[in-house]
Amino acid sequence: MTAEIHHCKDCVDLLGEYIEGTLPPDRAKALEDHLSLCPPCITFVRTYKATRKLCRSALMREMPRELMHSLSSFLEARVPGFKRCEDQTIAAPAADTAPKKV
């Protein structure tokens, strides 16, 4: 049986794990049930997700060419099957890969 969430604070406490997809299924279901009935929590979740995405975009930087070359050489020497590509650009991930619920 799924323990219900009766307080918005409980929702906030579970949000990080929920967004990362690491919340156990029964707790995720309880959180989704709460969200289906609580407009303020829905707004909070949407704002939380948007903030994460904006921060990732703002912090993304292109890796300097010298560092990319050094890293590629290191990986090529130590990782079986790694193939260095001189023209590739290495940057932080831009997409938020969190589950798309709510």
Which helices and strands, and how do they pair?
Layout: H1 8-20, H2 25-37, H3 39-59, H4 65-78
Helix pairs in contact: 1-2, 1-3
Characteristics:
102 residues, mainly alpha, Arc Repressor Mutant, subunit A, elongated, disordered C terminus
Short description:
This protein is an all-alpha fold and 102 residues long. Helix content is 60%, strand content 0%. It has a domain at 8-78: Arc Repressor Mutant, subunit A.
Highest CATH level, the class of the domain at 8-78: Mainly Alpha
Detail the poorly predicted runs. Answer: 89-100
Helix content bin: 55-70%
CATH architecture of the domain at 8-78: Orthogonal Bundle
Number of helices: 4
Biggest sheet, open or closed, and with what strands and sense?
A: none
The Rg value, from CA coordinates, equals 20 Å
In what range is the share of β-strand residues? under 5%
| Topology as a string of helices (H) and strands (E) | HHHH
Shape: elongated
CATH fold-type name of the domain at 8-78: Arc Repressor Mutant, subunit A
Euclidean distance between termini CA atoms? 22 Å
Number of strands: 0
- Rounded mean pLDDT is 78
Question: Can you give a write-up of this model?
Answer:
The protein has helices at 8-20, 25-37, 39-59, 65-78. It has 102 residues and is mostly helical. It has a domain at 8-78: Arc Repressor Mutant, subunit A (Orthogonal Bundle), CATH 1.10.10. The protein starts with 7 loop residues before the first helix and ends in a 24-residue tail after the last helix. Residues 89-100 have low confidence and may be disordered.
